[in-house]
Design a protein that fits this description.
alpha+beta; single chain; 3-stranded antiparallel beta sheet; 9 strands; 6 helices; disordered N terminus; 35% helix
């Protein structure tokens, strides 16, 4: 329940008029009380968007079963890969699964290793600092080519909710 709804419940009709008044004079009050996130996508989805836009990305494939993970690793034709749990949570690399596996991001060197790790990821909860003990179920893994970065950038587009202005952030990481 939003702050404005609580006021309406406590004070009756007058506060509903006050709520409308507040929304008109200060749109940020309305936005803050009704926060909606519309962009929650997995890493493989964002890589596909970048790839479709012509941005170079490492080769990757997505798997929903351990057998698919093995086939995905075989399709990359590489001996230097990563397997990454596709869970909407930060800190995947430092997390742990309720299967006993440590870390949701691991280096792998063979299709067999991809299958073995996928067996301990898919269908299990990944617990991170962000998810808390309740964790999040991993239903897919991404197998990607492992590349060595020469330069790393952090890029973000953020919305200033008070002014409804987009801000672009770019940082070179040394």
């Amino acid at each position: 329940m939003s702050l404005l709804s609580k006021c309406g419940t406590c004070l009756g009709k007058q506060s509903l008029q006050a709520g409308d008044f507040l929304r008109r004079i200060c749109p940020a009050v309305s936005a803050a009380s009704q926060q909606v996130r519309n962009l929650s996508i997995h890493e493989y989805m964002s890589m596909k968007i970048l790839q479709d836009a012509g941005v170079p990305v490492p080769k990757f494939a997505v798997a929903s079963t351990p057998k698919e993970a093995r086939a995905a690793a075989e399709s990359l034709e590489s001996k230097d890969m990563m397997i990454k749990a596709q869970v909407l949570a930060g800190g995947r690399g430092k997390g742990y699964f309720d299967s006993g596996l440590k870390a949701g991001v691991k280096m792998i060197f063979s299709p067999e290793e991809a299958e073995q790790l996928a067996e301990k990821m898919i269908g299990f909860k990944l617990i991170t600092k962000q998810t808390g003990e309740r964790g999040r179920i991993c239903s897919k893994v991404m197998i990607s080519q492992r590349l060595f970065t020469r330069r790393e950038f952090y890029f973000a587009i953020v919305m200033d909710r008070a002014t409804q202005v987009r801000e672009f952030l770019l940082q070179l990481i040394h």
